[in-house]
Amino acid sequence: MTEPRHSKGGPLARSAMAYVLAGGRGSRLMELTDRRAKPAVYFGGKSRIIDFALSNAINSGIRRIGVATQYKAHSLIRHLNRGWNFLRPERNESFDILPASQRISEDMWYRGTADAVYQNLDIIDGTGVEYMVILAGDHIYKMDYELMLKQHVEQNADVTIGCLEVPRMEATGFGVMHVDEQDRIVAFVEKPKDPPGIPGNPEMALASMGIYVFSMKFLTEELNRDANDPNSSRDFGKDIIPHIVKHGKAVAHRFPASCVRSEHEKESYWRDVGTVDAYWEANIDLTDVVPALDLYDQEWPIWTFAEITPPAKFVHDAEGRRGTAISSLVSGGCVVSGATAKHSLLYTGVRINSYSSVENAVILPYVEVGRSAQLKNVVIDRGVIIPEGLVVGEDPELDAKRFRRTDKGICLITQPMIDKLKL
Fold first, then answer.
1. Residue 106 has pLDDT above 90, yes or no
2. The pTM is what?
3. Which member of 69, 128, 187, 271 lies 3.0 to 4.6 Å from 178 by CB, making a disulfide possible if both were Cys?
4. Domains along the chain?
């Protein structure tokens, strides 16, 4: 079979736009999103969460990208401007940051995910793209969107929806696709108590990844129709997709069919790091000898803002005062001075001073850990100054009084929490 190509020739991705919905509040990440949107939260030692969706788009061959922002977007916009400004109009490329700006009405911000696209249709129309790939900006995964575009065209679908296969009773927190034997979606159920199983595999269900492929012409018609419906909440999952399932052709695209894996990755990796526990676990998993997510895959690099920093440094070599890191990721600009890091991620510019130890720690940029501190099972927000001798991870009751402690025993530490200790 001849591979689908867009009307000008070449891969479909060259005639597609990736539109990233990055306005999420991310309230389940607690204080980590007090000053930043969830897509702007750090991940993996030097990246931000949104870098995964954007890198997937670039690596898939998509050269027109839009990012819709809304909630506490300053750090996100700054990151995008610094790290993603290499796309050039003279090469038929574009990168547009699209904050909610009351462009349609003076009293209306983005009312839902569909509205975040509808309000910018005039900007999108100016790019001349034929296909639209709608993406969530807050998940960790590697995926070739070109393969999803090909399925969309081959099956002549109105919408193609990226789906995860999950154990059926674990799908109650997702939008779930009820499909027939050809993976055509016959019903879309939002957070069902009894999710429908997959034909031939009834113990598994197809959960929506929040990834949608449309032809631009069809999407424009649907968004205009929805905008004129007074009962709509202007949301893809609640309004647009159920309408297409009922009146058009909606098809499921199974994630393993386009998941990108290196030779070291055994599973199709996808994570929603939407809680402190999930965020900590996904980061700490990267310290495994062979982690489930390979960040070292040069064939599918994760692009980001590459901050200019000096190399990481380890100093002192006396008993009890030896700069060491064991099964840890240590970023540029870090100084481990007579201290020990074990199964930890040290983001850019972290300094750990003498006689201290950190274990199972996710330490965001420019944290300073004072002398003789002992920290275990922690997430430390950017720029926090840990006082000398602080002990976290040994007394659950004391930790819960001073910091945000999860049910699984992970302590989130921010500077305001540290400041209260000094009162």
1. no
2. 0.94
3. 187
4. 12-287 (3.90.550.10), 313-420 (2.160.10.10)
